[in-house]
Amino acid sequence: MNPSQLLQIRHWFEEYAGNFLAGADGLRPLFELKRVHSCRVAGITRALARRLDWTAEEVRAAEAMGWLHDIGRFTQLAEFKTLDDRRSVHHGRRSCEVIEQSGLLVESSDGERKAILDGILHHNQPAIAEGLPPLSLRFAKLIRDADKVDILWHVQHEVRSGMVDRHPEIILGVDRTSRAVNPEVLAEIRTGRPGSYQHIRTLSDFFLIQLSWVYDLNYAATFDLLAVHGTMKTLVDHLPDTPEVNEAVGTLLGEFDRRSTGRAY
User: Fold this and answer.
1) b/e burial code for range 230-247 (CB count within 10 A of at least 16 → b)
2) Are the beta carbons of 38 and 14 closer than 8 angstroms?
3) For residue range 190-205, what is the model confidence (pLDDT) as tens digits?
4) CA nearest to 257, candidates 234, 224, 229, 235
5) pLDDT on residue 264
6) Nearest Cα to Cα of residue 222 among 121, 131, 150
7) Taking a C-beta distance cutoff of 8 angstroms, is the pair 112, 134 a contact?
8) Handedness of CA 13, 18, 19, 20 (dihedral sign)
9) How many CB atoms neighbour CB 222 within 10 A?
10) What share of residues in the chain are helix, strand, coil (percent, to 5)?
């Protein structure tokens, strides 16, 4: 991707998102949340791609993927008044549809276009489908990591600021008062895989599942970025102090430390 194409995509995104914000009324904070999230993810994809020594063209394509990965959220919110894919549409697939209709990637090579769209399609899937071309697989791993990094950084802030009290949709409407942990979440984590949203009942479940993302991050550079901010360890403050939870936390933080290289970011 050349610099002018990336600039065009960024300008298009800002105008597209701005059109939804203009008439958002009560949903305006959620539209703004998605706009700002996309801006941050674009920066994270750029930083990670550079850290991974991708070519300049690939770094720009990765940044474009960050800008566009959640573009389907805007029509999802406008049509269904929810961010819950289970009650509306698969927002990764919707994002690909919006991008295809926009013609934004017509200047890209076939391989680059497919890598960006495959990455966006898979960024919110439980797992990356097998059989993707090598470039698509690299892009899918990158956007999944970048998306999780931003969510990990900012959900805690949104809880502390009261944003989730005003818009519980952000954390899927879970119980924000109970500190109980669903045993099914713990059972999933003991198998060495991330907990699934279908078992979330409380805010503690939500944070424990975020901690279990150590099993679903792909690049050592991602672990290093999170380590710099102490991101994963701060999640523990939100969890109850019980033997079962402490055992899970110890395992997850141990896995995190094992995957992080300790390099300065």
Assistant:
1) ebbeebbebbeeeeebee
2) no
3) 999 998 888 899 999 9
4) 224
5) 64
6) 150
7) no
8) positive
9) 24
10) 75, 0, 25
Report residues of the chain scoring pLDDT below 50: none
Please report, as a single letter, which amino acid is at residue 208. Answer: L
Cα–Cα distance measured from residue 53 to residue 123, given in angstroms and rounded to the nearest whole number = 21
Give the other-Cβ count within 10 Å of 106's Cβ: 8
CA dihedral defined by 101, 129, 152, 8, rounded to 10 degrees? -30
Rounded CA-CA distance 126/71 in Å is 19
CB-based contacts of 195, cutoff 8 Å, min separation 6: 185, 188, 189, 205, 208, 209, 212
Among 186, 199, 196, which Cα is nearest to 239's? 186
Domains assigned to the chain: 3-147 (1.10.3210), 174-259 (no CATH)
Residue 125 DSSP one-character state: S
Q: What is the pLDDT of residues 147-180, one digit of tens each?
A: 999 999 988 888 888 888 888 878 877 888 888 9
Chain centroid offset of residue 105 CA: 22
Joined together, the tokens standing for residue 131 give 């059989």
- The pTM assigned to this predicted structure is 0.93
Q: Tokens for 42, please give them.
A: 């674009």
d(CA 186, CA 200): 11
Cβ contact 24:79 at 8 Å: no
Q: What are phi and psi of 70, to 5 degrees?
A: -115, 20
Kindly report, residue by residue over 236-245, the tens digit of the pLDDT: 988 999 999 9
Q: What gap in Å lies between CA 22 and CA 179, rounded to an integer?
A: 38
| 76 within 8 A of 88, measured Cβ to Cβ | yes
